[in-house]
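CO-FOLDING WORKSHEET

Operator: S.A.
Ligand of interest: guanosine-5'-triphosphate
Run index: 368
Mode: holo prediction, single chain
Checklist:
[x] sequence pasted
[x] SMILES validated
[ ] output reviewed
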Amino acid sequence: MGIIDKIQAIEAEMARTQKNKATEHHLGLLKGKLARYRQQLLEEAASSSGGGGSGFEVAKSGDARAVLIGYPSVGKSSLLGKITTTKSEVAHYSFTTLTSVPGVLKHEGAEIQIVDLPGIIYGASQGKGRGRQVVATARTADLVIMVLDATKSQHQRESLEAELEAVGIRLNCSPPNIHYRKRETGGVKVTFTAPPQGSLTEEAVKLLLKDYKVHNADVLVRDANASIDDFIDVINADHRNYIKCLYVYNKIDAVSLEEVDKLARQPNTVVVSCEMGLGMDDVVEQIWYQLNLSRVYTKKRGIKPTFDDPLVVRSGSSIGDLCHSVHRDFKDKFKYALVWGSSAKHSPQKCGLSHVIDDEDVVTLFTK
Ligand SMILES: Nc1nc2c(ncn2[C@@H]2O[C@H](COP(=O)(O)OP(=O)(O)OP(=O)(O)O)[C@@H](O)[C@H]2O)c(=O)[nH]1
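OUTPUT RECEIVED:
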């Protein structure tokens, strides 16, 4: 039996099994197996597709990367054309985006690479077509921009979400608050910081680990509401990516105002019309906001800072991270930094590598 058959058999069994307290552990085990087989399938696909000329890979460049995901003809190329400096040809028929055209969005001094993924992410979890390579690229994203057609049903969104979910991409959520460490000896030790309220119980943890052939491990569950799915994600943490997602509903020119209003009220959502140029500023603002980047202006000693060419780092970065973004070895030469701006207690403040900088701080770096 091939992996795809095994996956289908498990999916069929899950569909047949009634969901209730008595079947919870059995279903949990099936989900654990499913996660394992799906992983095998992706790995198998990755190793067999190497070397071919039709591979899909885009070099990462700029300060951050966002990927566009959506069904064919929802307007991904049109959106890319509107917000980036790359011109992409839009033909008036389906399946136009055969290879990826990365565009660059320049905003607030940052360069954000936007990659239009071929519209074939669906089916990827079943090992179909180039979807797998598309998934591999999606994993490297700092932000997923899911482009949806406002004139179509919510099914498009649900099915894309399910596809991403199946390949281990988690949208707009944080990793489960569960500590898990494999050990050499000592058996499986499970500790809950509060009595479990969710589907994850000590018995469920032990059953799953047994199925994964893990006989010695420490598990500390810090979230009383943790589910079996959460723990499966923790066991498979190497293959899970937690990525922000912005939902962009295009073609609002073709639906009613009430419909637009309803869509716009959903969280992490912008509504646009690429054809009429509506909502383009909102999309750019939201992309910038969701990427959570900070601009830092560097200043040479005795000279006023220039505010046109910031260094762009992730919010919450330290002076050490900033040094790294200047040059890999810069940290070794670093002596101290002077910082002006909201992160400084007084201006300027003399700081070391661990000082956390704020958006729009001005920094002078001193070397040995
Ligand atoms: N009504 C309307 N049509 C639009 C809008 N934006 C794009 N379209 C049309 O939708 C069709 C598809 O647009 P594309 O930008 O090629 O879509 P795509 O998602 O890149 O398509 P693929 O390359 O097939 O993946 C074209 O015929 C566009 O003219 C819009 O805002 N409103």
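REVIEW:
Residues 64-173+240-291 form a domain with the Rossmann fold fold (CATH 3.40.50.300).
The longest strand covers residues 241-250.
[x] output reviewed
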